[in-house]
Design brief:
The chain is α+β, with helices and mostly antiparallel strands. It contains 20 helices and 18 strands. Helix 13 crosses helix 16 and helix 16 runs antiparallel to helix 19. It is globular and about 75 Å long.
Length: about 475
């Protein structure tokens, strides 16, 4: 703003700056000022490509002129995603596209050529939004002290062995990184869940009655001894945390805890692609996971469609690593087309099929991983490297090499044929499932294309 004001009429400036103001709420005033007071001539968005060594930035180049823009003012734009060009000036000249400045809205700036802009307009105009049809997403649980409230299976089993009543307070727990497309990959974590006012209600006290923390803690020790013994070392930090209930061992107030106990759709806050799945196992999640209480199969299919991802990548903030930030305020604007009962049924059935196939595939992947420690000598830690975790990508020679590298021990010669048959047999199952998932997703996408009445040319843009 200051640079623009310092220019003489008709003067130009070009800045390399952060691109985050393109879409953030804090950048709205700046976006409004520039679109009305300056003629934007050239813009380059580098995405998460790192221009400056040793510093994480999301840079952009904006070249503007101190002239009030006209209705048909066009901007030359270039969006870089894959790599930095050796010669930016030459690359810009060869690859830039144009868009009208009037299309830069106050809500967010989307740099895209006119054909993509028309497609986006077609995807949004005349349709109800996710918020209007299904409601807004809910964020996962923020404990303020995960070390105390998020435990592994070993600790969970110990607490239940010490006191069977402990199981009443332990909920299966997912982290944002566990949420995948069509399925979850749990790390066997559990949440000690006592929401705000839980202690008071369990004690049978009304809201007006004053209860001291000491008295409430004594009651907890008497009723849930194992849980209270586990939590007691965290008391000091627990009292200091901001995200707490009436007492330090309670979670913060939340009006939708009961929704975690129902079927729902899960997705991660940060994602490189569509990662929505239906949960029927009453999982809770951390604050990097979000839920939609409605587990409608039609909605699940729409969310995992290419059309929805096309829309979301245009409005959500892009961050390092190719990730998009799927904030609720953006997600709730997702267009939901009307559909016949038959269309909803087709999409819902295809979504269900994709989820079942994906869960079968993950079970095969996970079961094979669980057998690999059998090859590890007892004196070594049976820890898997990333290549062994993705064992289905290895041929048998590479598999043997990774086993020897990680466990410092070769597969015994007498067992090699069995292991090769096992590896290749499970890989064949995954290949078959991958093909079935790909075919089902293609069918689902084409039904969604029909809902939005996309032309063959528009489908090509979405597929690309």
């Amino acid at each position: 703003e200051l640079g623009h004001k310092l220019l003489k009429p008709g003067g130009r400036l070009g800045y390399i700056s952060s691109s985050t103001f393109f879409k953030t709420g804090s950048g709205e005033l700046l976006r409004n000022y520039l679109t009305k007071q300056a003629t934007l001539e050239k813009m380059v968005d580098f995405g998460d490509l790192q221009v400056f060594d040793g510093v994480t930035t999301y840079p952009a180049i904006v070249v503007l002129k101190k002239v009030i823009p006209e209705a048909e003012t066009a901007i030359a734009i270039l969006v870089l995603r894959k790599s930095l060009p050796d010669n930016l000036d030459q690359h810009f000249t060869q690859e830039y596209s144009t868009m009208h400045q009037a299309r830069l809205s106050q809500s967010s700036w989307q740099l895209e050529d006119e054909s993509l802009a028309k497609l986006r307009q077609k995807l949004t105009q005349g349709y109800q939004t996710l918020k209007e049809v299904y409601g807004s997403p809910y964020r996962g649980v923020l404990t303020g002290l995960n070390a105390a409230f998020v435990i592994n299976r070993q600790i969970r089993n110990r607490l239940i062995d010490e006191d069977p009543r402990s199981e009443e307070l332990l909920k299966p727990f997912l982290e944002g990184k566990d949420l995948k497309k069509w399925h979850a990959q749990p790390n066997d974590l559990w949440l000690i869940a006592m929401p705000k006012f839980w202690t008071r209600q369990a004690m049978g006290k009304n809201a007006k009655e004053i209860i001291s923390e000491d008295k409430a803690w004594l009651w907890l020790q008497q009723q849930y001894g194992a849980i209270s013994n586990w939590l007691e070392p965290f008391a000091g930090k627990g009292r200091k945390r901001l995200d707490k209930g009436e007492f330090w061992w309670e979670l913060r107030a939340c009006t939708y805890y009961e929704e975690f106990e129902k079927q729902k759709i899960f997705y991660p806050e940060f994602s490189v692609s569509s990662k929505f799945h239906r949960d029927a196992q009453n999982y809770y999640s951390n604050n990097k996971g979000f839920i939609l209480p409605n587990c409608d199969g039609y909605l699940l299919g729409l969310l995992n469609s290419k059309v929805s991802w096309q829309y979301l990548t245009g409005i959500c903030t892009f961050v390092r690593g190719g990730y998009y930030e799927l904030r609720s305020i953006k997600m709730e604007t997702l267009p939901i087309p009307s559909a016949t009962t038959e269309q909803k049924s087709i999409i819902g059935n295809l979504a269900q099929k994709c989820q079942e196939l994906s869960e079968q595939r993950y079970a095969i992947e996970n079961n094979f991983r669980r057998r690999l420690p059998d090859l590890c000598p007892p004196e070594r830690e049976a820890k898997l490297n990333n290549r062994l975790k993705s064992w289905w990508l290895l041929d048998f020679a590479s598999f043997q090499k990774q086993i020897k590298s990680q466990f410092k021990s070769s597969i015994p010669p007498a067992e090699r044929n069995d292991w090769q048959d096992y590896l290749e047999g499970e890989q064949a199952k995954i290949t078959t499932l991958n093909l079935q998932i790909t075919q089902s997703e293609a069918e689902l996408n084409h039904v969604v294309y029909d809902l939005f009445e996309l032309t063959p040319q528009e489908i090509v843009m979405v597929e690309a």
